[in-house]
């Protein structure tokens, strides 16, 4: 009875299954890192876009046509 139980438990944890789970875990980690990298890129692009907008607005505010912002 105990021997049969041990054999049943051994099946799901074969080296092939563990290798598959490890591969899936690696792919999931790579996918998470890729997502984080994408979010970081989007955040960088958003920062650059904000800086570009501020740079565009700066000449308007400092122009002679705008006496409130010399």
Describe this structure in words.
The protein is mainly α and 70 residues long. 80% of the residues lie in helices and 0% in strands. It contains two helices and no strands. The longest helix is centred in the middle third of the chain and has 47 residues, at 15-61. The mean pLDDT is 74.
Unreliable stretches covering 5 or more consecutive residues: none
Q: Class by helix and strand content?
A: mainly alpha
The number of distinct β-strands equals 0
Rg from Cα: 29 Å
Helix content: over 70%
Could you tell me the strand content as a percent range? under 5%
Q: Mean pLDDT, as a whole number? A: 74
The number of helical segments is: 2
Topology:
Layout: H1 2-10, H2 15-61
What is the gist of this entry?
Helices cover 80% and strands 0% of the residues.
Descriptors for this entry?
single chain; mainly alpha; 70 residues; 0% strand; rod-shaped
